[in-house]
Specification:
Strand order of the largest sheet: 1-2-3-5-4-6-7-8-9
Pfam families: AXE1 (PF05448)
Distance between the termini: 44 Å
Order of helices and strands: HHEEEEHEHEHEHHHHEHEH
Helix content: 25-40%
Mean pLDDT: 95
Strand content: 15-25%
GO molecular function, one term: carboxylic ester hydrolase activity
Keywords: Hydrolase
CATH topology: Rossmann fold
CATH superfamily: Alpha/Beta hydrolase fold, catalytic domain
Shape: globular
CATH class: Alpha Beta
Organism: Amycolatopsis carbonis
Protein name: Alpha/beta fold hydrolase
Length: 323
């Protein structure tokens, strides 16, 4: 069933979100603090049975200089430098096996698949820890460190994402002018933040992006992860205003209004995890050239494989794989 507003209303929907006046200053200072640490990229070959791709274990210094792990996959025997995609995964998951997620490298890109810190237990293995503790929170990640903008979990994650673009550009095999950011669900929200924090990325792909229009999402979403916010605020009854003040620095609508890279979005109108209006709130605020695929009878999977086919076609003239 449809989970949100009718499509005609979604196309003109404007989020009530308003960015705090010091949104840009906060993120400038956060990235400047991270820049005090050398990016410290290490690349180690990984033996696999793959015959057409080479795989490497990559680490780089993220927020606080903490080591972030990633897979680098590149087409074998294809001369570089190559266009690159920096890929972020879904909520609670991890980068998984070196043998998974082979589409982008198979299509001619250098693919840097980032392992989101502190996650990796639900669907695919992760190896990146989060050494920063937090105060009381609802189970999951959405309220971790939510007492302040400085301690909030996604401050570290979004900084890791911006640093991931820097790490990709430091690789000899990558053309620094042809780096895109991509992801689905949580990964789409992280990619959207990265596109704003690193404004000269070449392209963005966000499939059913999470972490957008957070106040609305907390009120209408009936499934996790957004229900974590409701669960937290059901007990922290007097912290509603403070909580959403903190979240205003991390809302995808705020990042969308600052990002200018050519962007490809997608959403399923039967998505009961990420309400479609929250994606439209970000999409309609997006500053750059943009396209949105809407799948009327799909849920959180959005267009699935068709989305991949479509975004590969979108990226080809922008990033020119094979040239």
């Amino acid at each position: 069933m449809l989970t949100d507003l009718p499509l005609a209303q979604l196309r003109t929907y404007t989020s009530a979100y308003q960015a705090p006046e010091d949104f840009d200053e906060f993120w400038r200072e956060t990235l400047a603090e991270a820049a005090k640490y050398e990016i410290d990229v290490t690349v180690t070959p990984v033996e696999t049975a793959l015959r057409t791709l080479d795989v490497f274990e990559v680490t780089y210094a993220g927020f606080g200089g903490h080591p972030i792990h990633a897979w680098l996959r590149v087409p074998r025997n294809q001369p570089g430098p190559l266009p690159a995609v920096v890929q972020f995964h879904g909520y609670g998951s991890g980068r998984g096996s070196a043998l998974e997620e082979l589409v982008w490298a198979s299509a001619g890109y250098a693919q840097l698949q980032i392992d989101v810190r502190g996650q990796g237990g639900a669907h695919a293995g992760g190896t990146t820890g989060d050494p920063v503790g937090s105060g009381p929170s609802f189970p999951g990640f959405l309220t971790r460190g939510i007492e302040s903008r400085e301690t909030y979990f996604y401050r570290r994650v979004f900084t890791d994402a911006a640093r991931a673009v820097e790490a990709a550009r430091a690789l000899d095999v990558v053309d620094a002018d042809r780096v895109a950011v991509v992801g689905n669900s949580q990964g789409g929200g992280i990619a959207l933040a990265a596109a704003a924090l690193v404004p000269d990325v070449a392209a963005l792909y966000a499939q059913a992006p999470f972490l957008c229009d957070l106040r609305r999402a907390s009120l209408i979403a009936g499934k996790a992860p957004y229900t974590e916010l409701a669960g937290y605020l059901a007990t922290q009854r007097h912290e509603v205003d403070r909580t959403f003040e903190v979240l205003s620095y991390f809302d995808g609508v705020g990042f969308a209004s600052r990002a200018t890279a050519p962007a490809h979005f997608s959403i399923g109108l039967m998505d009961d995890v990420v309400p479609p209006s929250t994606v439209f709130g970000a999409y309609n605020a997006y500053r750059g050239r943009k396209h949105l695929d809407v799948w009327e009878y799909n849920g959180h999977e959005a267009g699935g494989g068709q989305d991949l086919e479509n975004v590969l076609a979108t990226f080809a003239p922008l990033l020119k794989p094979g040239s």
